[in-house]
Amino acid sequence: MDYKKAGVDIEAGYKAVELMKEHIASTMRPEVVTDIGGFSGAFSMKSFVGMEEPTLVSGTDGVGTKLKLAFILDKHDTVGIDCVAMCVNDIACAGGSPLFFLDYIACGKNEPTKIAKIVSGVAEGCRQAGAALIGGETAEMPGFYPVDEYDLAGFSVGIVDKKDMISGANLRGGDVLIGMASSGIHSNGFSLVRNVFSMNEETLNSKYECLESDKTLGETLLAPTKIYVKALSAIRESGAVIKACSHITGGGFYENIPRMLKENKHAVVHVGSFRIPPIFEMLARDGNVDEHVMFNTYNMGIGMVLAVDPEDVDKTMAAIESAGETPYVIGEITTGDRGVTLTE
After folding, report:
1. Phi, psi values for residue 337, rounded to 5°
2. Helical packing angle, 229-238 and 79-93, nearest 10°
3. How many C-beta atoms surround the C-beta of residue 337 within 10 A?
4. Helix, strand, coil shares, percent, the chain, to 5
5. Closest-CA residue to 105 (of 79, 75, 74)
6. Sign of torsion, CA 34 51 235 243?
7. Of 88, 166, 164, 179, which is closest to residue 129 (Cα–Cα)?
8. Do 226 and 212 contact (CB within 8 A), yes or no?
9. Burial of 216 (0-12, 13-18, 19+ CB in 10 A)
10. Which of 132, 136, 163, 274 has minimal Cβ neighbours within 10 Å of its Cβ?
11. Is the confidence at residue 105, as pLDDT, over 60?
């Protein structure tokens, strides 16, 4: 008996590392001072000594049960983008710029080609965020995970000068809410998705007229989460001030928007002010899911919400568009109990 007969193939692990190296190399930044394959990743802070009070901001998350679709469709090159997005968008909400990222893949069987595809998506997400992929772990765990399944999670660290942190402290009545369009469902609410749609190849590989797209249902559901780091950076560079910011993840509008508000401030969102992608309408109809539950579970077409002074609206909208994203004016801040109201 040896480790390989027990289900852990060390040689496959070595091969997976070799296959992923080119993807990792494409994310490097000059501050990275270690090579892939060491016991840890190191990142120099020398270039940030000019900040008045450099402050580290961190985020960690996983992809969740969206991975089940990747297993069924045998498509593994985009879920890594979701993993990065879920971490770096949270960092960006605080005004931080992501510096580096680490991933963790736990699998039932290490198939080097599949692992490399997963990491290629992680690397793509890191490139979109401007973060270096400085390390990670692939754990082969036979008997714990089925041989054809895996879990994927990550951790990221960013930096911001404390005076530039987005905290909501300066919010006032009359400030304008701007939303940035999502790419679809992103990476939340898939336990409900998997109960509404049949999770088989025939259904997921089918096209539906109501989706108003040439993509299959599976491709629509697997569309990777938008990464908003560059858009938020463009807003700051425009001179506009982001007073508050919320990443619309699990919990949808009702849970996430209040998180960016201070006491005595209320958000009013006009539902008709932005486009709701057809996949949400299909999900609500086929699953008989009422509107409140939809807005309490999904992003409904808005992946990020931010608040700005009315005088900064035009600059903010232009900056978002310059970064390749689609902005909407979706509401305003009022005085009242901390929370959110959705109106027509």
Report:
1. -60, 140
2. 30
3. 11
4. 40, 25, 35
5. 79
6. positive
7. 88
8. no
9. middle
10. 163
11. yes
CA–CA separation, 140 and 60 (whole Å)? 21
Residue labelled with tokens 């990747």: 70
Pairwise CA distance, residues 28 & 241, whole Å: 30
Q: Which helix (H) or strand (E) holds 229?
A: helix 229-238
Distances (CA, A) of 87 to 106, 149, 169, 327: 18, 22, 23, 22
**pLDDT tens-digit profile of 17-44?**
888 889 999 999 999 998 877 788 899 9
Token readout for 139 is 């754990």
Please write the tens of the pLDDT for every residue from 314-339.
999 999 999 999 999 999 999 999 99
User: What residues pair up with 179 in beta bridges, in sequence order?
Assistant: 305, 328
CA atoms within 13 A of residue 22's CA, in its CB half-sphere: 4
Cα separation, 65 vs 53, in Å, equals 39
Q: What is the pLDDT of residues 263-298, one digit of tens each?
A: 999 999 999 999 999 999 999 999 999 999 999 999
Structure tokens at 70: 């990747």
The whole-model pTM stands at 0.95
HSE on the CB side for 329, CA within 13 Å?
Answer: 15
Instruction: List b or e across 298-323, with b for residues whose CB sees 16 or more CB atoms inside 10 angstroms.
Output: bbbbbbbbbbbbeebbebbbebbeeb
- How many CA atoms lie within 13 Å of 304's alpha carbon, on the beta-carbon side? 27
What is the spatial distance between Cα 239 and Cα 260, in angstroms, rounded to a whole number? 21
The pLDDT assigned to 1 comes to 66
Report how far residue 277's alpha carbon sits from residue 215's, in angstroms, rounded to the nearest whole number. 13
3-state secondary structure of 256: helix
pLDDT above 90: percentage of residues in the chain: 89
**Torsion (CA) 172, 178, 179, 180 in degrees, nearest 10:** -130
How many other C-beta atoms are found inside a 10 Å radius of the C-beta of residue 263?
7
The structure tokens listed for 158 are 């960013």
Helices then strands, counting H and E runs in the chain, come out as 12, 10
Q: What is the pLDDT of residue 47?
A: 86
